[in-house]
Amino acid sequence: DHRLSAAIGRIEPSPTLAITARAAAMKADGIDVISLSAGEPDFDTPDFVKQAAIAAIEAGQTKYTAVGGTPALKAAVVAKFARENRIDYSPPEVIVGVGGKQVLFNAILATVGPGDEVIVPAPYWVSYPDIVRFAGGSVVAVPAGREQGYKVTPEQIAAAITPATRWVIFNSPSNPTGAAYSGEELAALGAVLRDHPHVMAITDDMYEHIWYADTPFATLAEVCPDLKDRILTVNGCSKAYAMTGWRIGFAGGPRWLIAAMTKLQSQSTSNACSIAQAAALAALDGPKDFLAERNAAFRARRDLVVERLDAIDGLACPSPEGAFYVYPDASGLIGRATPEGVMLSNDADLAEYLLAEARVAVVPGAAFGLSPAFRVSYATSREILETACERIARACAKLG
Ligand code: PLP
């Protein structure tokens, strides 16, 4: 379409939309569909956070703020990185945006153009490749399958780096697999960057607080402080504080990059919502005890889902260390036939079959760049998860 820009032609609508829309349409037709495709906690925003927003409205904090965030919230972000991640940023090294998504968009648009490459380990969060392509850059996907715990190795990253590489994007714990890198694994990945001074790294730590491992969460700038000036540490309130609708994300990074991202934001959204910023301030500075309770619930659901799905003939479901997703490998189901005699030739076919036969909506691995697999979000009640797993098991048992 000649009315559209070249840039918009390079991206696709979120590939999860098709299946989510079909599930919604089936529900509207009165069919009892269980959707395991949500990317958000089912818990509510903590009450003290809501109260801070109400107080901000009543105090008249309803005007524009500084583009990169209120001084108070930037100070809280600086304190968060120091307290939780042992990274020493100053206020000019942090930015607050409209969700982690805008922060990532700012960073890529400010640094990537035609001829530039961005290394993205697969499976990846669906938006990374599209943001890179929108900027005009090329995506270099590096596959990390179940046999390697859905984690890339330093050797793979080293082999993918070229003179055109601008960024490597790490996401731990991962959407869609839940896999998380240990401090030692991150240090080994950082060592590769040390050999290639032109390469920078984004670490997307959005799921930091949805964490089950015995070892503490680690992030790249923490374990490789000498590389801090080449790392953008992205985080936000959406997942940790069940604040997806408030749209607050933030990042710490080198001053020149934060300044460029702030300049771009000044010409797009200006500041994040003033009221949401007040709520985020309360969340970052406030009590953290509810996180342990929620993690205990998430962890029990993970155990349930992993046990049920891994027991299904044809599926292999690793048990992840964080986030609220599992990513069963479905190699054993591809090539098999439905009761109607239709062959499942890929994971999109499998997701279609599960929707039609089990009435459970999952997202096919193709959306995340690593097949055959599918993503299950377990951010829903135990009862629903039990029913969904039972239905998936029954549908899989019917395959020839
Ligand atoms: N990064 C990852 C890995 C995500 O899964 C998400 C949300 O789904 C985001 C970033 C963006 O989060 P938000 O824009 O809600 O802060």
Write the layout of secondary structure elements.
Blueprint: H1 6-9, H2 16-28, E1 34-35, H3 47-58, H4 71-85, E2 94-97, H5 99-111, E3 117-122, H6 127-135, E4 138-143, H7 154-160, E5 165-171, H8 183-195, E6 200-204, H9 220-223, E7 231-236, E8 249-252, H10 255-266, H11 274-285, H12 289-310, E9 325-326, H13 347-358, E10 360-361, E11 363-364, E12 374-377, H14 382-397
Parallel strand pairs: 1-10, 3-4, 3-5, 5-6, 6-7
Antiparallel strand pairs: 2-8, 7-8, 9-12, 11-12
Helix pairs in contact: 3-11, 4-11, 5-6, 5-10, 7-8, 12-14, 13-14
Bound molecules: pyridoxal-5'-phosphate.
The site of pyridoxal-5'-phosphate (PLP) has 13 residues, from α5.
Enzyme class: transferase
Keywords: Aminotransferase, Pyridoxal phosphate, Transferase
Domain Aminotransferase class I/classII large: 32-392
In short:
With 400 residues, the protein is α/β, with parallel strands linked by helices. The chain is 41% helix and 12% strand. The chain has helices at residues 6-9, 16-28, 47-58, 71-85, 99-111, 127-135, 154-160, 183-195, 220-223, 255-266, 274-285, 289-310, 347-358, 382-397; strands at 34-35, 94-97, 117-122, 138-143, 165-171, 200-204, 231-236, 249-252, 325-326, 360-361, 363-364, 374-377.
The total of beta strands comes to: 12
* CA radius of gyration: 21 Å
CATH fold-level assignment of the largest domain:
Aspartate Aminotransferase, domain 2
Name of the CATH first level of the largest domain: Alpha Beta
Mean pLDDT: 96
Could you give me the name of the CATH homologous superfamily of the largest domain? Type I PLP-dependent aspartate aminotransferase-like (Major domain)
Strand content: 5-15%
What spatial form do the alpha-carbon principal axes imply?
A: globular
In what order do the strands lie side by side in the largest sheet?
Answer: 2-8-7-6-5-3-4
Q: How many domains would you count in the coordinates?
A: 2
Helix/strand order, N-terminal first: HHEHHEHEHEHEHEHEEHHHEHEEEH
Uncertain stretches of 5 or more adjacent residues: none
Indicate the structural class: alpha/beta
Major β-sheet, in short?
Answer: 7 strands, mixed
The helix fraction, in percent, is: 40-55%
- In the CATH hierarchy, the architecture of the largest domain is 3-Layer(aba) Sandwich
Organism: Flavisphingopyxis soli
EC number: 2.6.1.-
Family: Belongs to the class-I pyridoxal-phosphate-dependent aminotransferase family.
Catalytic activity: L-aspartate + 2-oxoglutarate = oxaloacetate + L-glutamate
